[in-house]
Design goal:
By secondary structure, the protein is α+β, with helices and mostly antiparallel strands. It has one domain: Cytochrome P450 (Cytochrome p450, Orthogonal Bundle), CATH 1.10.630. The chain contains 18 helices and 14 strands. Strands 1-2-10-7-3 form a 5-stranded mixed sheet. A hairpin with a 2-residue loop joins strand 8 and strand 9. Helix 6 runs parallel beside helix 18 and helix 10 packs across helix 12.
Length: 411
């Protein structure tokens, strides 16, 4: 993209969020190359349709919590693709956003999530028991891509056989293919429509129902005292599916790749059950996977930079959690860290509603995995393949362990 007249030349950096330089060494490592001491707090890239990038944790948090200046009207890049994203309520700003968020919070509250812990744990146990005695697994295929998906499909009372097609749609939303903004917009728009087409008959069937599954609870909720509109219900349930089928899947892959390389952290988790239960927040800080955006709501000056209405600002959450001044020794998973600063779940009115479920899934995974597989490593250190996008991913995670050491759990 040509450089807009209000963008100073010294703020222009060539950064492609979908093809980060050095990503073969790691997704988080690739983003960290940008966060040098001499890098300005706001920089501009002509890639992905042209947009700003916030490079400091305080800016990322500030932009998240201020929808009056930084709108959620468009949150995906390139902007042309983000305009095809139609899910509710992520594209809304307060006060329109607020009643829809209350509906999400009702269905995904701490109390509601605690009620399903036994079901979540059974899914984890069944999956791990399926390969623990083999001494190896491909973690992404055998666990990460199965566990959160099975949990969510059960919560939503949807057939597990539908999950592969929905997961492909989720990938097209968060890492859309295409060589131009127009091509990426088509990919994302088609995937958005695919979610809506899948959800519409389910919403119709469950409207007026009395079931306790997540979808029935949501579609029979009120918005400002009146039943939720059908179109808004479809967009809301589509958002639930997108969030439930991609984010935790990819987070788990990054977490387990790290643990396979750091047996001392694994041993610390095993030695202290309380520390393990409290470890989720540090894991979230260390392995953020989301890079979404906000749209400038009006012409303004911000940190000495002129921003014009409609400009897009990318918020790579890894640049908050892995910033040295925000979290000393940030590359280390420090299970005794006292002050944890990150934007992994966003912040402000759009802070991720699914964080309580994500936290439970991480804790349950660690508990049940380490009971059965107390030590493990990467079979091939060069194997993991990293992917950047709105939600980052790591694939090809071959783990191996001694079978003799994997049977210390009750039969």
């Amino acid at each position: 993209m040509p450089i807009p007249s209000h963008v100073p030349a010294h703020l222009v950096y060539e950064i492609d969020m979908y093809a980060l330089d050095g990503i073969e060494e790691g997704y988080h490592e690739a983003w960290s190359r940008i966060q040098r001491p001499d890098t300005p707090p706001l920089i501009w890239t002509p890639f992905t349709g042209g947009h700003w990038i916030a490079t400091r944790g305080d800016l990322i948090n500030d932009i998240y919590v201020d929808p009056s200046r930084f709108s959620s009207e468009v949150i995906f890049l390139p902007k042309e693709a983000g305009e095809r994203y139609e899910m509710v309520p992520t594209r809304m700003d307060p006060p329109e956003h607020t009643p829809y968020r209350k509906v999400l919070d009702k269905g995904l509250s701490v109390g509601q999530i605690r009620k399903i812990e036994d079901r979540v744990r059974k899914v984890a146990i069944d999956l791990i028991d399926g390969f623990a005695s083999k001494g190896k697994c491909e973690f992404g295929r055998d666990y990460a891509q199965a566990f959160p998906v099975q949990v969510f499909m059960a919560l939503a009372d949807l057939p597990l056989s539908d999950a592969p097609a929905l997961s492909l749609l989720a990938t097209d939303m968060t890492r859309p293919s295409g060589n131009t903004p127009a091509e990426m917009a088509k990919t994302l728009g088609d995937a958005n429509k695919g979610f809506f087409d899948y959800v519409a008959p389910i919403v119709d069937a469950r409207t007026g129902g009395t079931g306790d599954d997540l979808i029935t609870v949501m579609v029979n909720s009120d918005i400002n005292g009146v039943p939720i509109e059908r179109e808004k219900a479809i967009a809301l349930i589509a958002l639930l599916l997108l969030g439930g089928l991609d984010t935790v899947v990819n987070f788990l892959g990054f977490m387990m790749t790290y643990l396979a390389r750091h047996p001392e952290t694994v041993e610390e988790l095993r030695a202290d059950p309380i520390k393990l239960q409290r470890s989720a927040e540090e894991m979230f800080r260390r392995f953020p996977v989301i890079s979404e955006a906000r749209m400038v709501a009006g012409d303004t000056q911000y940190h000495g930079v002129t921003l014009m209405k409609g400009d897009m600002i990318l918020l790579p959450t890894s640049l908050h959690g892995l910033q040295e001044s925000e979290n000393p020794d940030p590359w280390k998973v420090d299970l005794s860290r006292k002050r944890i600063s990150h934007s992994t779940f966003g912040a402000g009115p759009h802070r991720c509603a699914g964080l309580h479920l994500a936290r439970m899934e991480v804790i349950v995974t660690l508990q049940e995995w380490l009971k059965r597989i107390p030590s493990f490593r990467l079979e091939d250190e060069r194997a993991p393949i990293y992917h950047s996008g709105i939600i980052a991913a790591v694939s090809n995670i071959p783990l191996v362990w001694s079978v003799d050491n994997s049977a210390d759990h009750p039969a």
